[in-house]
Structures are given as structure tokens and as C-alpha cells.
Specification:
Length: 164
């Protein structure tokens, strides 16, 4: 019973923080909401008995990626443009229609999907050894493609930064 309550608290915290990311106008406050969402996700990993994934979530995303996001936002000196956020330029109906359609799609997805057969085999073991074995045996090719994509993105970032 306690696990269910903790799950719902973390899930609601994650959804509220995700809504704060998308609905807040200040990008720094949105980044703080995203950090809260990452911490809630790490808490969900702990509830699933995956402390390694929770630690990686906090170290990589909160510790590195969000610091980089906030650094870039501070470096760009993003100011508010008063015309950009006026109510005349942003109609509300399309936003609410899109939200309604996405919620309907999510509900239909949950009802039509059997999550027990959708879980990968590494999810059942939760040990670092199982994850590493699967990552470097069955999923070696996608792992290497992802590392190549990240290398290309880093080189592209350096090239774009040197042009200025």
C-alpha cells in the first residue's frame, strides 16, 4: 500500500513539473521544473528497485544536462519580449484541442497495451550486469549508432561555435 501511495505522489509530481516546464514563460523557471520532473522520475526508478538507473538519472540529467541548459540560457541572456506573450497572438482553442486529443490518445494507448509483454528482458533483472550484457550483446549495433550520432552532434556543436 505504501508503494502505491509513493508511486502516485511521484507520478503526480512528475506530471505537475512537466506541465510547469511547458506552461511557464520564463525559461530558467522551466528548467527548474524540469529538474523536479527528473527527480520524480529518479524516485520512480527507486520504487522499481532500480537504484542504479535512479543514480544515473540524477547524475547525467540533473547534474550535467540541466546545468548545461541553464548555462546556455544565461549565456544567451534571454529576455522577455512583451509582444511575444500577448494574448492576441496566442489563441487558446488549438492548445486545448491538442491537449484533449493527446489525453484521449494516451488513455486509449493505456487501455489497448499490455505492459507486461512490452517490458524488455533487462527490465526484469534490474542488475547492472544484465543491463550491460544486453547492451553489449543484443543491442550492440543500436548502441554504437547512438554513440556515433552523439559524436556527430558534438563535432557539429564545435563547428557551429567556432563560426562565431
Amino acid at each position: 500500500m505504501a508503494h502505491t501511495i509513493i508511486f502516485w505522489i511521484l507520478a503526480i509530481m512528475s506530471v505537475v513539473c512537466a506541465l510547469g516546464v511547458t506552461l511557464h514563460k520564463n525559461p530558467v523557471v522551466s528548467a527548474v521544473f524540469l529538474i523536479g520532473s527528473f527527480f520524480a522520475l529518479a524516485g520512480l526508478y527507486v520504487e522499481l528497485h532500480a537504484p542504479f538507473l535512479a543514480a544515473i538519472q540524477i547524475i547525467v540529467y540533473v547534474g550535467a544536462i540541466m546545468v548545461l541548459f541553464v548555462f546556455v540560457m544565461m549565456l544567451l541572456n534571454l529576455g522577455r519580449d512583451p509582444d511575444r506573450f500577448s494574448k492576441e497572438t496566442k489563441p487558446r482553442f488549438p492548445k486545448y484541442l491538442a491537449l484533449f486529443l493527446l489525453v484521449g490518445l494516451l488513455i486509449s494507448f493505456i487501455h489497448l497495451t499490455s505492459f507486461s509483454r512490452a517490458l524488455p528482458e533487462a527490465f526484469h533483472g534490474f542488475s547492472i550486469e544484465n543491463i550491460a550484457t544486453l547492451l553489449f550483446s543484443k543491442y550492440l549495433f543500436p548502441f554504437e549508432l547512438l554513440s556515433l550520432l552523439l559524436l556527430i552532434a558534438m563535432v557539429g556543436g564545435v563547428i557551429l561555435a567556432k563560426k562565431k
